[in-house]
Amino acid sequence: MIASLLIANRGEIACRIIRTARRLGVRTVAVYSDADAKALHVREADEAVHIGPSPTRESYLLGDRILAAAQATGAQAIHPGYGFLSENAQFAQSVLDAGLVWVGPRPSSITAMGLKDAAKTLMSDAGVPVTPGYMGDNQDPAFLARESAKIGYPVLIKAVAGGGGKGMRMVEKAEDFADALASCQREAAASFGNAHVLIEKYILSPRHIEVQIFGDSHGNVVHLFERDCSLQRRHQKVIEEAPAPGMDAATRAAVCAAAVNAAKAVDYVGAGTIEFIADGSAGLRADRIWFMEMNTRLQVEHPVTEEITGQDLVEWQLRVASGEPLPRTQDELSINGWAMEARLYAEDPARGFLPSVGTLDLLQFGGSPGGRIDTGVYQGAEVSPYYDPMIAKVIAHGATRDEARRRLGVMLAGSAVWPVRTNANFLVNALAHPAFIAGNVDTGLIGRDGEAMAQPPIASAGALARAAGSMVPATDMPGFRLNAPARGTATFLLDGDPVDVALPAAGAAAPALTAIVTEAGQTWLLSPWRHEASHGGGGGDGAILSPMPGRIISVDVALGDTVSKGQKLLTLEAMKMEHSLTAPFDGTVVELNAIAGGQVQVEALLARIEATGE
Questions:
Q1: Active site residue 19
Q2: What pLDDT, in 10s, does the model give residues 35-91?
Q3: Of the residues 169, 297, 319, 405, which is catalytic?
Q4: May I ask the CATH architecture of the domain 538-611?
Q5: Structurally, what CATH architecture does the domain formed by 4-103 represent?
Q6: Residue range 132-201, CATH number
Q7: For the chain, what are the domain ranges?
Q8: Could you tell me the pTM of the whole model?
Q9: pLDDT of 224-253, one tens digit each?
Q10: Which of the residues 318, 332, 337, 610 could staple to 328 if both were Cys, CB 3.0 to 4.6 A apart?
Q11: What contacts 24+ positions apart, CB below 8 Å, involve 53-57?
């Protein structure tokens, strides 16, 4: 077994690897940037090495600094986690050339499967069915538009080096193709350093089915069954589960066998995932499931596979990298119950899912039998604008799908985070959607019904009254005296908005100046009413403020332009994603401070819209 391990990653996955390594007696070394100096993975590792400034291109993406840290600390092996350098064949080779152990597949396998177009050709040659599309080298926009017309709309534009939903656009009609292609290529170039794309036929009732495979250096390859990751928003997974609902034994056998054959075709060693796209319009059928891509690393959603198989996949990785055979044969693996995972993000669904940054003054996770929390933060930690905004992976296991679903809902509903906003209530709503309950989910569900799921709840009168009972009464709350009987209502501020609250019969023994209210995963701050606070400007005054630090990608309007409500004004790149800022109402652009290519700070005034008729 490997004796010492450097983890070339951060956050939740670094903490996850440390947990298994500690159990196995493996010494761990963390690396960190300026922004991560106080991060949880730095606290939990046996040793930590600073590798540079906060931006990833100046720290976590610098392979030479990571290698230097490994050599300086005497680490025997490097685990790349997921993201960053995990699927970089050149870095993997440099690790091996330095005489270190690479906890991952052979560089040749990464190269073979790293580009989606080449991987599809390889799989087609191996007899694995692939989706129709164009995977050639011609990247001329006019040519790609003609190929898309041949394939037939809707089509999917995908970065060949992409992953995590980045560098991907669905196009419904020809007139939208040019803009979608340009945006996709920009995002692909920024995220992966490669703007090359392929075109695929977009499946109208698509389900995302993936199979966990594992190989060792002794020629053994097994699968650990399938996961369903169909509930997605903007091609990013939201809730994952294992096994896949509606998967019968014959279809499972066919799909998992195809995944094993795909892995064998590239002489695969270590953890990997074969991703398939399924036409779910007539249920899951082996003849309607096509190869999409392979991820040559551990997946974010690997815990659901661990929960249904009882296996620790990080332990498998370390054992295989140490030269051991796979811990289990195919016959020794079976499915036990059901598991679901939700990605709890620092983002605000009510504001178009814009990432939310800041200090986690309050961080509490709801509990449930069969529950598991994988996180890389703690109460008091900072959510930085530099990295993925994941707070935690919330996982629940149950004997049945419905039991796992209900347990996950309880965990999310009981989660309280403040002042950073999260998508917890959105996830609670998604779990309660009739189509999800029925297991009838395709990748377009959130696109169709997501607006309703994103609507924030209204705090109940009971929750507000309980919170009010813990607060010090303000002088402008008529009739509110501590430890006095109930005397009607008083006005408070709930997240800055006035709200009337039924007064409690008695105050708290140790009153507070403010109170946190949490229901259904939504968290509010209840504070004393102040007259001046109810008359602020906010978004209603037409000011377009930057929601976070970032870079202006494009400016789509000019000073003096007439705009309509919802019209795109500019595009901001932040936290590795593009975000469109739109007009709040019909009006005229009377102020414009945004310049394409410029860097902006949080709450910088980018533009101002004057309403029509003012």
A1: no
A2: 999 999 999 999 999 999 999 999 999 999 999 999 999 999 999 999 999 999 999
A3: 297
A4: Beta Barrel (2.40)
A5: 3-Layer(aba) Sandwich (3.40)
A6: 3.30.1490.20
A7: 4-103, 132-201, 206-453, 461-535, 538-611
A8: 0.80
A9: 999 999 999 988 999 999 999 999 999 999
A10: 332
A11: 54/384, 54/386, 55/386, 56/84, 56/386, 56/387
